[in-house]
UniProtKB/TrEMBL annotation:
Pfam families for the chain: PDZ, Trypsin_2
Keyword flag GTP-binding: no
Similarity section: Belongs to the peptidase S1C family.
Keywords: Hydrolase, Protease, Repeat, Serine protease, Signal
Annotated signal sequence range: 1-24
This protein's name: Do family serine endopeptidase
PDZ domain segment(s): 254-345
InterPro entries tied to this protein: PDZ (IPR001478), PDZ_sf (IPR036034), Pept_S1C_Do (IPR011782), Peptidase_S1_PA (IPR009003), Peptidase_S1C (IPR001940)
Cell wall biogenesis/degradation keyword on record: no
NCBIfam families: degP_htrA_DO
Lineage: superkingdom: Bacteria
Originating species: Ferrimonas gelatinilytica
Length: 455
C-alpha cells in the first residue's frame, strides 16, 4: 500500500511538471535516472538575491511608572530611556544591476546606522538607504558595484491560488536558502494597519527571510517576503509577501520623488459580504462596497456614489476593500485609474485621478547630513512650489542650521553645481546626491524669503 501510494505521488508529480515552463536542460525523464529539478531556474535567479546585515542603536523605554522615577534619581538607568546597540539580518533583491538598486523591507533596515550587502558570489558592499515606506514595509537601497544580476519582474495581478512559488532568502543567517510552495491565498491582511495586500504562501519563510524574493517557476519576482504567522516562533506554513506590482509602484515613487506620494480616492466603505450582495441583488461575492463619498474628493469628481460596488481596477479584479485601499494608496498621487463598478445592477466604469494623501514626509537625513532632524515633504500651493519642512527635532543639525516647521525651501545653491529652483522633494534629493558639502537654501517663512547656510 505504501509503495502504491508513492508511485501514485510520483505520477501526479510528473503530470504536474509536464505543464511547467521549459528551461534549457530541464530534466524530466526518470528512465535515464534524471529527475525533475528547479536547479536551472535557481542558478539564474540566486545572484539577484542578497543578504542584508545591519547595525544600529535603538531606544529602550523605562519600565518604571512616571510617578516613581523620582525615587530612582535622575541618573538611574531605571528612570530614563536607554540606547542599546543592535545587529540584524535580512534579505534583499537586486532590481537594477546598472544602478545597484536593492529592495528589502523597511523593518530590516529601520534605525540602522550601517547596512552591509552580501552577494551570492561572496562580495560585500556598504549600502546607502535611498528611501523607505514604513506603512508598506518597503525600502530601497543602493550599492556601488559591477557585474550585478537583476531579477526579472512578473505581473502579480495575474497570480492565482495554487500557482507554484519559490522563496529565496537568508533565514537565521544561514546563507542563501531556497524553499518551495504554492500561492495559498491572495489579498490577505494581518492587522488592518498600513496598506496590506499580501500574497500568502506555504513556502517556508523564517526570521532572516524578510526582504527576500518570492518567485514563480519562470524565475520572475512575484513578491517580497515580509511576514509570517508563527505561534511557536518558527515556520508553520503561513507566510506573506508584498506583491511585486505594489513594490514597483512604491520604488518608482521613492526614486523619482524621494518619498511615497500616496494616492487617495476619498471613499469610506467595506467588504462585499453575502448579506450586502443579497441586499443589492448581486451574484458576485467579491468587491469593495462604497458607503460614503467624501466631498471634493477624487471619487466625487469622478462621479462615484454611495452604494457603488467597485469590482475592478485597470481591468484587474478587486476582491476586497482592503485590496482596493492598498492598490490606490500605492498607485501614487496624480495617477489615473479606471474603476469598474456595479451601480443599480448594471456594470459601468469611471476614470479617477487620485489626490495626494496628507501628511506624507521623509527623514531629511537620507538626503543630506545638514538636514538631519527635519522631516520634509513636497509642497505645491498656488504658484509656490518647493519642499516643506513639516517637523524639526530640537538640537538637531537642521535646528542648528535654523530650519523651523512650516518653512518652505524654494531653492538651493551648491558650490560646484550652481543654483536650482526646487519643484519637489525628489529634485532636492537628486541635486544633493553624493554631495556632503555646505549649501545655501532659499527659504520662505511667514511670507518672507531668507537665505540660510546649511552645514
Amino acid at each position: 500500500m505504501k509503495k502504491t501510494s508513492t508511485l501514485m505521488s510520483a505520477a501526479v508529480l510528473c503530470s504536474a511538471l509536464s505543464a511547467l515552463p521549459a528551461y534549457a536542460d530541464w530534466p524530466i525523464s526518470f528512465g535515464d535516472k534524471e529527475r525533475p529539478s528547479l536547479a536551472p531556474m535557481i542558478e539564474q535567479v540566486s545572484p539577484a538575491v542578497v543578504s542584508v546585515s545591519v547595525e544600529g542603536t535603538q531606544t529602550a523605554r523605562s519600565v518604571i511608572p512616571e510617578p516613581f522615577r523620582y525615587f530612582f534619581g535622575p541618573n538611574n538607568p531605571h528612570g530614563r530611556e536607554q540606547t542599546r546597540p543592535f545587529r540584524g539580518l535580512g534579505s534583499g533583491v537586486i532590481i537594477d544591476a546598472d544602478k545597484g538598486y536593492v529592495i528589502t523591507n523597511h523593518h530590516v533596515i529601520d534605525n540602522a546606522d550601517k547596512i552591509l550587502i552580501n552577494l551570492s558570489d561572496g562580495r560585500e558592499f556598504d549600502a546607502k538607504l535611498i528611501g523607505s515606506d514604513p506603512d508598506t514595509d518597503v525600502a530601497v537601497l543602493q550599492i556601488k558595484a559591477t557585474k550585478l544580476t537583476a531579477i526579472k519582474l512578473a505581473d502579480s495581478d495575474t497570480l492565482r491560488v495554487g500557482d507554484y512559488t519559490v522563496a529565496i532568502g537568508n533565514p537565521f543567517g544561514l546563507g542563501q536558502t531556497v524553499t518551495t510552495g504554492i500561492v495559498s491565498a491572495l489579498s490577505r491582511g494581518l492587522d488592518g494597519d498600513g496598506y496590506q495586500n499580501f500574497i500568502q504562501t506555504d513556502a517556508a519563510i523564517n526570521s532572516g527571510n524578510s526582504g527576500g524574493a518570492l518567485v514563480n517557476l519562470d524565475g520572475e519576482l512575484i513578491g517580497i517576503n515580509t511576514a509570517i504567522i508563527a505561534p511557536g516562533g518558527g515556520n508553520v506554513g503561513i507566510g506573506f509577501a508584498i506583491p511585486v506590482n505594489m513594490v514597483q509602484s512604491l520604488t518608482a515613487q521613492i526614486l523619482e520623488y524621494g518619498e511615497v506620494r500616496r494616492g487617495v480616492l476619498g471613499i469610506l466603505g467595506g467588504e462585499l459580504n453575502n448579506e450586502t450582495a443579497k441586499l443589492f441583488g448581486l451574484d458576485t461575492k467579491h468587491g469593495a462596497y462604497v458607503s460614503q463619498v467624501m466631498p471634493d474628493s477624487a471619487a466625487a469628481k469622478a462621479g462615484l456614489e454611495a452604494g457603488d460596488i467597485i469590482i475592478s481596477m485597470n481591468g484587474k479584479k478587486i476582491r476586497t476593500f482592503q485590496e482596493l485601499r492598498a492598490k490606490i494608496a500605492t498607485r501614487g498621487a496624480g495617477a489615473t485609474v479606471q474603476l469598474g463598478l456595479i451601480r443599480e445592477g448594471k456594470e459601468r466604469s469611471v476614470t479617477v485621478t487620485l489626490n495626494e494623501a496628507p501628511g506624507e514626509n521623509v527623514q531629511a537625513s537620507l538626503i543630506h547630513p545638514a538636514l538631519e532632524g527635519a522631516k520634509l515633504s513636497s509642497y505645491a500651493e498656488g504658484n509656490v512650489k518647493g519642499v516643506a519642512v513639516t517637523d524639526v527635532e530640537e538640537r538637531s543639525p537642521a535646528a542648528r542650521n535654523g530650519l523651523q516647521p512650516d518653512d518652505i525651501i524654494l531653492g538651493i545653491s551648491l558650490m560646484d553645481r550652481g543654483r536650482a529652483v526646487l519643484t519637489d522633494l525628489g529634485q532636492l534629493r537628486e541635486l544633493l546626491e553624493g554631495y556632503e558639502g555646505p549649501f545655501a537654501a532659499s527659504v520662505l517663512r511667514d511670507n518672507n524669503t531668507i537665505m540660510m547656510i546649511m552645514r
